[in-house]
Design brief:
The chain contains nine helices and twelve strands. The chain has 258 residues and is α/β, with parallel strands linked by helices. The protein has one domain: 3-Layer(aba) Sandwich (Rossmann fold).
Length: 258
């Protein structure tokens, strides 16, 4: 079960969002999409999820282009947790998670026992089973993110895509959320801003800049001081943390030496 992009080009409103992006998502691993604002991370996730079609190039799932997949089978395989998932409806947590079962139900059919089992399992996985009857609007930002991941898990996908899942969360909830993603038995692609979190929780990183792929590989291969200077415009010291064993980046001011 593989997911890969091949020479993706996508323009919107006369602006090039992606230009020639090719990458391979590691099966069963976590691929982090990193890059400055406007580098194309969210655009790439939408193309990988099949929510939009590129102007050129292909996204392949199990060696079939997404254009060859019917909408419902594709929705059973790939789940996307977008950055600004919200609703104005007055609904409960379990109702949000049930939305993830839509690709598995016939039109107008009610929830089956299998659906309810999937919803309960998803809520249990993200630690929100005790909140299932709680109103969506009463949840904190971190709890809402967990529920959105539960909705995606209720789809029972093999590929999970997440767009900035740690946005607006405090440090504790960022760590909890990414630990959860790290432990999922799925192929995951996650867009992240924080490079230290990306280096800690991702098997591979794909660095985007102005709609192009600069590098893909291990955190140590991708996050070099030269690339950070070229892409982000910052000077940095990169080392392995003695506390975690993961790569750590320290940003330097103009008067500091690396």
């Amino acid at each position: 079960m593989s997911l890969r992009a091949e020479a993706l080009h996508w323009r919107l409103g006369g602006h090039a969002l992606l230009a020639g992006v090719s990458l391979q998502v590691p099966i069963g691993g976590v691929l982090g999409l990193i890059g400055p604002n406007g580098s194309g991370k969210s655009s790439l996730l939408r193309l990988l999820a099949g929510l939009a079609r590129p102007d050129a190039g292909q996204v392949w799932l199990d060696e079939r282009s997404l254009g060859q997949w019917r909408r419902r089978p594709l929705a059973r395989r790939i789940a996307l947790v977008e950055q600004h998932a919200s609703t104005e409806a007055d609904i409960r947590v379990e109702d949000v998670v049930r939305l993830g079962r839509t690709p598995h139900r016939a039109l107008l059919a009610g929830a089956s026992a299998e659906d309810e089992q999937a919803v309960s399992a998803a809520l249990e996985r993200v630690g929100m089973q005790s909140r299932r009857l709680q109103a969506w609007h009463s949840l904190s930002g971190g709890e809402r993110q967990r529920v959105q991941i539960a909705r995606a898990l209720a789809q029972q996908p093999s590929e999970l895509l997440l767009d900035e899942p740690t946005n607006h969360l405090d440090i504790q909830h960022q760590l909890e959320l990414l630990t959860l993603v790290r432990q999922l038995p799925l192929t995951c692609v996650v867009a992240l801003h924080d490079l230290n979190l990306a280096a800690r929780f991702c098997d591979q990183l794909a660095l985007l800049h102005q709609g192009t792929l600069v590098a893909q590989g291990s955190p140590a291969d991708v996050l070099t001081p030269e690339r950070l200077r070229r892409v982000y415009g910052v000077r940095a010291h990169v080392e392995t943390s003695a506390a975690t064993g993961h790569l750590r980046i320290e940003y330097l001011s103009a008067d500091q030496n690396p």
